[in-house]
Amino acid sequence: MRRPHRARAHHRTATVTTTVIAAVTAAVTSTALALVGLAAAPATATPRPVPTTAPAPAPPTEYSGELAGARYRVLVPQGWNGTLVLFSHGHYPSEFFGGFPAPHVLGNQQLSEKTLTDHGYAVAASLFQNDGLDFTVPTAVADQSRLLDWFSAHVGEPARTITYGQSMGAVTAVKHAEVEPDRIDGVLTVGGVIDWVGQLDAILDMNVATRELLTDGTDAHGKPIELVHAADPQASRDALVAALAAAAETPQGRARISLIASLNTVTGWYEMNEPRPEGVEAWARGQAQWLIGAYTMGLGPTARVHLETTLGGNPSSTDLTRLRTRLARSGDAGGVRAAYAAAGLDLGADLAALEAATPIVADPSARAAMVAHRPEGTTPSPVLTLHTTGDGGAPPSGERSFAQRVRAVGDPARLRSLYVDRGAHLSVNLGEELVALRTLERRIDTGRWPSLAPRLLDRAANALGPDYRATFEVVTLQTFDHAPAFTHFVPPRAPRPSW
Prior knowledge:
Layout: H1 10-13, H2 17-35, E1 61-67, E2 70-76, E3 83-88, H3 112-118, E4 122-128, H4 137-154, E5 160-166, H5 169-179, E6 186-190, H6 196-214, H7 233-247, H8 251-262, H9 280-296, H10 301-311, H11 323-330, H12 333-343, H13 347-355, H14 364-371, E7 383-390, H15 397-409, E8 415-423, H16 430-446, H17 454-462, E9 470-473, E10 478-481, E11 486-487
Parallel strand pairs: 3-4, 3-5, 5-6, 6-7, 7-8
Antiparallel strand pairs: 1-2, 2-4, 8-11, 9-10
Helix pairs in contact: 2-7, 4-5, 6-7, 6-8, 7-9, 8-9, 8-12, 16-17
């Protein structure tokens, strides 16, 4: 029986499904095309000045090819400093690319490879199997290990090798250091998802909550919305997206969006170039954008088809118990309560409805296969993580969870986390990226972490000059000047750590 307090939004929103999906797909596809250089930069993008005070350095030597079905790129500058940066890109959902190739970048943004090679670093990256699309984690460490073999044989043995992971690529960067500790000297992550098992669990919780609170449980064809083992995953995805888009337009819907987002500590700071949103409405609208673009389209029912095929079943479980405790830990309790009060909704009734939802249980073999590729926090090499405080695409609560894991099973002296006070996902500037890499190198060379005081890190980044303020924002597809913004930050607790 359907509970009467649920928003029966399906029939109300079915007619806008096509419009909403088309708009969101166009936005994310434009982002993908911009990353691979197929879309022109917007006319309003801040131009990057070309230095004229010194002759341009000789271009690095570039290598490319394919190893065991995975394409690779390598850049080696003249005067190579001996450090190899082995980069792992994040999750590229095939539904965002429309048949276009995935970007084969060698750092956090396209400009990163020039920054790193200009400073003497060799950079290399496997694109991974399946042309880099969808869930590459299960094969990624092997792909990077083969590339490291190739580099040693054809370029030279690195004096140091640093694995560098972006977003879900952080899983690969950290795991590689655990699997081949004698070959990896340090790990750097940016906007990292390290506990991908726990993150996919929490995302499934949000998908269930969206279905339970914002729909009548059926898609546009009157069939049940299926989140795992879906017979029509696109119809299920479309129903959730339409419900979220409609909910964002009402106080009641926004209150429920804030509750859904709290299940994975998803922030409302969606656009880097906007200040941190103030007020319940603005915050919930930003959360709705994350829920649609990242967790329903990018990592929702359609994405799980590939994950389930790769792992031989559904690897994720829901846990919607103890929700009052989880809400308190999310850091969003005050905002959620205020939103519910303003909307005249009963928060207790919605929490009870979620706790009564039928649990989804992982297939044991698929769960075990996923866990086999999860970092365990035991790497003997130092790890430095870099994260924006407003990241809703990879919530920084995951950094706190990983730190707790390292304290339990590893050496906490080997891990440090840096934070930049900025919104959006992966929105660190070139200077912040380079300063983080140099900080890790110093730890590798001396055995001690240098000072991580934000003012000193900002000073080091500013000293690099104005070109290093370039910060790419995937939402607007523009590169902006942003001053370094290192800050002290304590993220909330992760809601579903899998360790």
